[in-house]
Amino acid sequence: MKRRQVMSLLALMAAAMLGAIACSNLSAVPPSSAVNLTVSVAASVQEAMEAVQAAYRAEAPLVSITYNVGASGSLAQQIAQGAPVDVFLSASPQWMDHLATNEQIVARTRQDLLLNSLVVIVPAGTATVTDWQDLRGDRVAKLSIGEPNSVPAGRYAKETLSALQLFEPLQPKLVFSKTVRQVLAYVETGNVDAGLVYATDAKLSPRVQVVATAPTDSHSPIVYPVAVVAGSRQREAAQAFVEFLSSQRAIAIFEQYGFAMAKYKVGQIAYRTQYRWSG
How many CB atoms lie within 10 A of CB 262? Predict the structure, then answer.
């Protein structure tokens, strides 16, 4: 083959490779026709996601979003059983892993989106608890945590109490809840003396006060992954919404509600986290 032909062939191959790379990096764009997305969302991120929805409406006015809010475990089970869901935002990697194992999410769309922390709350204006060890005292008759088998906040609570050697001694006092928001409500109404919730939940209510924060090494990292559900019939629109969740506009909203942003995508080598707490 002549030198000129070889050079031309190499040029064509390079152009093809660049084109393929460019196509692979294209972001999904909002649809040009009306679409309704069903998004299953962990209860602890409900208010932030409602604000995100309003912001996304300005960018993609043809997209309407219906949120299905609940405990991550229950939401994952619904998806596993074939519920018509387009996007899943979990409060625990465990439940996203469960769906991934059964190929029920689109793996390339998965990303770790948010970070949170676990705190002890009591009714505002009370002084029954000042640290973790006070939970063992007589002034705490009832302590609420999420159900560890289905509520991520409950699993993190059990891990923390176990690490602090408190889980077994506190067994008679424990009141298990179906969602982390139920724990918050129990403390707000005084139905329990203390509860373990996310820092973002505590920030929402003036009726509770934070008295202690879980040591970071006492529980698994509190990470919120998001992904397009494999059964979605409108994957492009779903992916466009997922990508919007890591936009600067959405980040500002999440940080306003007290979340930190996790910069990680499954399949990438680097794990970069922004610890920029706003509350």
Answer: 23
Q: What is the mean pLDDT of residues 168-180?
A: 96
Task: Give the separation between CA 159 and CA 218, rounded to whole angstroms.
Answer: 7
With tokens 């920030």, the residue in question is 203
- Distance CA(110)–CA(265), nearest Å, equals 6
Its pTM stands at 0.79
- Mean residue pLDDT of the chain comes to 87
Residue pair 99/105 in contact by the 8 Å Cβ criterion: yes
C-alpha distances (whole Å) from 93 to each of 88, 209, 215, 251 are 11, 28, 20, 20
Distance in angstroms (rounded) separating the CA atoms of residues 190 and 122: 8
Do 112 and 222 contact (CB within 8 A), yes or no?
no
Count of Cβ atoms closer than 10 Å to residue 74 Cβ: 17
Alpha carbons 114 and 106: distance in angstroms, whole number = 19
91: enclosing H helix or E strand: none
